[in-house]
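WARN no homologs supplied; continuing
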Amino acid sequence: MKTVLITGTSSGYGRETALYFHEQGWNVIATMRTPRAGILPESDRIRVLELDVTRPETITAALEAAGPVDVLVNNAGVPSIGVFEGTPMARVREVFETNTFGVMAVTQAVLPGFRERGSGVVVNVTSSVVLGHMPLTAVYKASKTAVEGFTASLALELEPFGVRARTVEPGACFTTNFGARATSDGSPEELVPAPYAEFTKKVLADFANQDLYTTERDVAETVWRAAHDTTGRLRFPAGADAVRLAEAK
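OK structure emitted
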């Protein structure tokens, strides 16, 4: 029986991906910064472990407790929606610490086992913001675009060892609290300086009125496909809106 380790499973895409792999008969190592009872169903094939991708000691402890895994899903991430001019650099660094450096840290910790066994898959969850140019996402897009480039080069390095790397690019999901958290960091004055107020209002209104969107199950199913793909395909858009963006690109 195969095992998947997923980061950021307390809600949203990560939780749904954990449920999906469990439904397919896999062992699931579901990790999160603050483990809590009731987030995932009780099962002898689900283990919940503490893992904060910005804290190396928790990465080491979680991987030691997990044992060998067949697939790593780097899903943990923090949002950032706002005008770049109004985004404090401390916030920029926070976003990169989780979305970019956290992905690299967990991946680097898992690779020795993959390489020694001659198998394994790294699936990095990025975002459809990498597929098009969208205002108010400068910091978030930069952090996710970095992961796209990282994964593309990583895939070439790992290929000789029988290890694969893939990215999944979710579209906009209105059933998670990710968007809500994205607009709640800092005061409105910090994220949206007054000269940008009308522009920001219009952008957010257009965003809310889009006709295509992504569900949590879309992402979980796409992660599953990416983990099982052997064609050499690198990027997997998830959700109708992401697919449309990818096709347009």
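The chain has one domain: 3-248.
OK
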